[in-house]
Predict the 3D structure of the following.
Amino acid sequence: METDLKRKWIRAGLFGAVCLLVMVLAIFVFRKPALKITARGGRALTPAVEIPQFNLLDHQGLPFNNDSLKGNWTLSMTGFTYCPDVCPTTLSKMAAFLTKLEAMPGNNRAPRFVFLSVDPFRDTVEELSRYVAYFHKDFIGVTGTPEGINQLVTGLGLYYVYTDQDDDHFLDDVLHKPAKEDYGVVHSSRVLFISPQAELVAVLSQPYEADDVLALFTQLRAYYGD
């Protein structure tokens, strides 16, 4: 009797070990491989970053919030319409990227491109509407309250600060309009890649060209799906 009981325990132990081994093997065999970015300046975020809750306005004066990011890929950058170099250069590259994407064979549903203004005091809805349309008819400009913009930008791990143009002195307060009208803005220049599930999955840092944007977007769409 005692020998039979030992045999049952041994068989049970072996069965459990086999089940555990099968589970471990299944995890390694069927687990999705890690995304390896090859595009210049690109970096995957693992795990993906949840977009903070926000409520802003687009360049048509319509609500733009977390739900606006769902259902399609979104590329985004921070900037301001008075920007003399980085912003217009980046917007031109984004327009060139979309042209290249549209020329590719197959289903090339274009992502949205969102230009998030970090200068709500000068970048009104009307100003943004004129600005983004100059670069591409489908670009989306977004603005809002200083508090709403600051909360979203900092929540995404980005930065911006106002500067005195006369001495390049940084102004600590971004929630109130600077006293001088011709203030500057120093801001993050990375492009954000947001999945159709409204999660930040990758960033693209300077320097980059339209081909780098296309390479990173193609990789992300192949990995995550449309």
Notes: Helices lie at 2-30, 86-103, 125-135, 146-155, 210-224.
